[in-house]
Design brief:
Helices cover 45% and strands 16% of the residues. The longest helix has 24 residues. The strands form 2 sheets. Strands 4-3-5-6-7 form a 5-stranded mixed β-sheet, sandwiched between helices. It folds into 2 domains: 94 residues; 117 residues, Cytidine Deaminase, domain 2, CATH 3.40.140. The chain contains 9 helices and 7 strands. The radius of gyration is 23 Å and the shape is elongated. Helix 2 crosses helix 3, helix 6 runs antiparallel to helix 7 and helix 8 crosses helix 9. The N and C termini lie far apart (78 Å).
């Protein structure tokens, strides 16, 4: 008796009944997935290895494929779970077999992580929880390939009103205009600001131009009664705090 067959994403046939399923067959792969689901649910996320987490993400997008080889390929190419999630769309499209569905799945996990970090930042006054702010900015910016300049606008109780990217630049420079920052703060009725930008090199030490730009924004904001609390430079490791280092 021939095995029953179904259609995969590309329109090809695959067996849906196999009396002697191998680990690479659909039936064998589903057994492997069931074991991983059980481990995730019963033991928690820390029980899964990086490639298993990527597998779990990808098999939601590619349900009829064995995603273990693809997960291992992503880790080999990018070096870590976090780097795979934050790889550029062009880099992900170069991974054979990933496709738009796989890319969208990775982007969904990245977006969910950022939303969780943002929720922690919004839940209390920022100046009382510098750890959550540092973690959020690191997740949002540390792996960007070019510099991004963002401004966190705060209310009178130092709660986040808005977090906006106000400039994108090259690998070592982002234009930032004090007039635009202050204009936006007035539109949002912000009482204070926190600035942040990333260094793709990984070294968060601010340049002389970074320091001069920060002081220009501080002066422009102060003229209108808006305080600048800090400028954080994100690289590898903990962000560099200009206020903490006496540069403000």
């Amino acid at each position: 008796m021939s095995a029953k067959r179904g259609l995969d994403e590309a329109g090809g046939l695959f067996p849906i009944e196999a009396p002697n399923a191998t680990p690479n067959s659909p039936l064998g792969a589903e057994g492997h997935r069931a074991r991983m689901r059980k481990k995730l649910i019963e033991a928690g996320p820390s029980a899964l290895l990086d490639h298993e987490l990527i597998e779990m993400v990808l098999f939601l997008a590619l349900p009829r494929r064995d995603t273990k080889p693809l997960a291992k390929l992503l880790l080999a190419r990018f070096g870590s779970f976090a780097a795979a999630l934050t790889a550029s769309t062009a880099e992900l499209r170069a991974i054979e077999g990933l496709g738009e569905a796989g890319i969208a799945a990775l982007r969904t996990v990245q977006a969910a992580a950022l939303r969780l970090g943002e929720a922690a930042v919004r839940s209390q006054p920022l100046l009382s929880d510098s750890g959550s702010l540092a973690a959020y900015l690191t997740a949002a910016m540390a792996r960007e390939r070019t510099e991004h300049f963002r401004v966190l606008f705060l209310d009178v109780k130092n709660r986040l009103i808005a977090d906006e990217v106000m400039g994108r630049g090259t690998v070592d420079h982002t234009p930032a205009y004090p007039r635009e920052v202050v204009r936006r703060a007035l539109e949002l009725h912000a009482s204070s600001l926190i600035l942040a930008h990333n260094h793709p090199s990984g070294d968060p030490t601010p340049s002389p131009a970074d320091i001069a730009m920060t002081r220009d924004i501080k002066a422009a904001a102060a003229a209108l009664g808006i305080a600048l609390h800090d400028h954080l430079v994100v690289g590898r490791g903990a962000p560099f705090s200009m206020r903490g280092q006496g540069l403000l």
